[in-house]
Structure formats: structure tokens, C-alpha cells
Design goal:
The chain has a domain of 33 residues. The protein contains 2 helices and no strands. The radius of gyration is 22 Å and the shape is elongated. The mean pLDDT is 74.
């Protein structure tokens, strides 16, 4: 019985092989779509998160006496 060892480095190596490997079952526009869609979504997610945390907290009551 052989036990397979899955550590972080093995997992990352396999993930990079999957991401960086060339597939020939798609046309060029599909391959560009896969790569740029992820990048665009990440940029928008970072922008929205930055807006959420960059603005100061606004209270409903200006002066609480």
C-alpha cells in the first residue's frame, strides 16, 4: 500500500501545471477570455474592497449629548 503525500508544494506545482499548460481544445478568444476575466474580476474586487475599508465610518447622529 503506497501512501500519497499531498503537501503544499505538491499541490501548488500541480495547480501551476494545470493553469500554465496549453490546451488546444479552445480557440484563442476563449483562452484570452479565461485569463482576462479572472484578472478583471480580481481588479474590481480589490477596488470595491478598498472603497469599503477606505471610507471613514459615518454615524447617523452627529452629536450625541
Amino acid at each position: 500500500l503506497r501512501k500519497s503525500k499531498m503537501d503544499f508544494h505538491t499541490l501548488m506545482r500541480q495547480a501551476s501545471n494545470i493553469v500554465l499548460s496549453k490546451r488546444y481544445d479552445d480557440c484563442t478568444s476563449d483562452r484570452l477570455n479565461y485569463r482576462y476575466t479572472v484578472g478583471i474580476l480580481l481588479v474590481f474586487a480589490i477596488i470595491n474592497t478598498n472603497r469599503l475599508y477606505a471610507e471613514q465610518i459615518r454615524c447617523w447622529v452627529k452629536f450625541f449629548t
